[in-house]
Design brief:
2 domains
């Protein structure tokens, strides 16, 4: 029973130590400002639309090309 309590105490102590160190590290983080977050969000959205449109066009071109190839092959 004593060994069990020692193990629980060790887990509790290491958990408290982990949380304290995590809190200390979070104070050292340089968080981005609102303007930077807004700018990068807009870039990600624009890139998503651009690549979505690009893949849409590539899909149409490949579909058209495969249709032409398969029509010529079949009798």
């Amino acid at each position: 029973m004593n060994e069990f309590l020692q193990k629980i105490k060790g887990v509790y102590k290491s958990s408290i130590e982990f949380l304290q160190e995590t809190r200390k590290e979070l104070k050292n983080v340089s968080w981005p400002g609102r303007r930077e977050v807004t700018g990068t969000t807009l870039v990600v959205i624009a890139a998503g639309f651009f690549f979505g449109f690009f893949l849409f066009v590539v899909d149409i071109v490949v579909q058209f090309g495969m249709g032409r190839i398969l029509r010529q092959v079949s009798p």
